Structure prediction request, 520 residues.
Amino acid sequence: MTQPLPSTRAQHLQAAAQDTTWDVVVIGGGASGLGAAVEAATRGYKTLLLEAYDYAKGTSSRSTKLVHGGVRYLAQGNVSLVREALHERGLLKKNAPHLVHDLGFLIASYTWWSKPFYGIGMKVYDALAGKLNLQPSRLVSKAKALQMAPTLQKAGIKGGVLYFDGQFDDSRLAITLLRTFEDYGGVALNYAPVVGLTKSGGKISGVSFRDSETGKSYAVKAKTVINATGVFVDSVRKMDDAQARPMLSPSQGVHVVVGRQFWPSDSALMVPRTDDGRVLFAVPWHDHVVIGTTDTAVPEVSLEPRALPEEIDFILKTASQYMNPAPTRADVQSVYVGLRPLVKAAQGSDTKAISRDHVIRISESGLLTLTGGKWTTYRRMGEDAVNRAAKLANLPERLTLTPGLRLHGWSEDERADHWKVYGSDADKVQAMEGAATPLHPKLPYMEAEVRWAAQMEQARTVEDVLSRRLRALLLNAQSSIEAAPRVAELLAEELGQDKAWQAAQVEEYQDLAKGYLLPA
Prediction:
């Protein structure tokens, strides 16, 4: 393992722009891009990752926070996807125990048939996980279900089924993968959008990117280029071939975040069939509850998708069928929306029926596009992409190390507080200035974490800190708005910025964060 590069952005930029030929250039710093980058770097390939905005800025920070096999895919009969995802769930828990933990899921039964029906289904789910299964599922009585979930609707309850899946913090896993990539000598740069692909003899030979902070452009040479830009893969494919037909049928998933009082349980609620045929979860996360999600086809992709009023109504209405008291619009502390990069299926098919398998396509000029999939299978996606890329570029054949790779910060420390996500780095963060100074009375975070984010995790903006290094925007958008001025002050100090930059950052962040609040 090589020593990580110094963390200042200027040094990262200098390393990215050096006159060299990279074995692999990865475009995109979300789950699939980071997975591919770690896969390539750990095999010893010289790898550069370029991200247009910030790591996990898009879909990869807006998931339901579950590492799971996908109960719904089992119902659809996609056994191979479920088996693969359950295998990857087990590996991820071993490789990042500071970020992934077991979580019980209660399927509440209100009909005579649902308890045995779902009980059998979950035993199949257990069996597919094999030796990597977390804990066996089991039937629970009415009394046990109500003891586990005191706010569950009592009328008509007949008991339930308890099964286990994994839970994680998505953008913290992204940052952990970034740090792991750097540990293995990889070079990564955020705010570095790729603006063109260079070709030699009709084959891709590199990329050009712009440094958003200075406006300066750079050209880099590459033996192979991986397009892992999630819902934006089609725009990169069009850089390669203006006639490329779109691959994706994107859909959006909405989540609302409410206080723990509405679901004061250590287990999550899983509703196996909502009125629109989806699965809905209420998941305890960072002392809040995340409720979602929806599946609405969207005609075009955007960086900041917004929930439709009917999606919010649907989530709250479904929650009210299972929770008493039930949250109302006034109780929602944040709303966030993720776009799914679903690969086009047959004409007119429903987005919730489209496969979540990942897809790799290689263009005539050699651009490798990786899309589809989900966080749980990020490692397998990266392995498959790098296997194909290495063949394409005639790189020396090397076996994957990632199935047993301990990710940066690996720690089995059982601490239950918010510091746990830093793993073995927690003590270093707590040794920094401001480790005992809260950012806001309604948030669990400390000022030292802003300094750490700037120094060690490539945070460049207030949004990078409050949305993805810390999860304040998703937990309580209003409190994050109130914390923004102090975060800007701390960041300015770390990054050498002036008062005008601070003021612009606060205004930008507060405008963005208002979109996570429900209108009164």
About this structure: Residues 477-495 form the longest helix (19 residues).
